[in-house]
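#lab-general

N.A. 3:47 PM
ok so I finally got the sequence cleaned up, no stray characters, all 119 residues accounted for. can someone with queue access submit it? mine expired

B.Y. 3:52 PM
send it over

N.A. 3:53 PM
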Amino acid sequence: MISIQGRLEKMVASAPPFQVSKDSELYTNLVSYSNAVFFSSKLAAYKGPVALNHVLDIVKRMRFGIPAGLEHNTANWQKIITTVQGILTQIRGTVKKEIKKSIKGDDRTKHCTFMGIGI
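B.Y. 4:20 PM
back already:
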């Protein structure tokens, strides 16, 4: 039993540090599901922990190739939380810019709708 535990500790110690790279499948899925949650008609608030918690629940359920038990490793789970927070901030910024740009003109037929921004 002790020898198995020692081998397991060596394997865990030799694992590369967990990172969320922008070209990974995980990042692509985080962006996709963050957009889906943000533009959901059931979302109570667009800012704060509501949207973040929905996306994190999806990540816990779907996994997207993250190592087992990662949510129990605070440092590594914080990397996912920080990434999702950044993605949601980018989405909010894009929505604000698009709305601001869409209401500049006087012609209301050229204004962008909220749902049109999400497409």
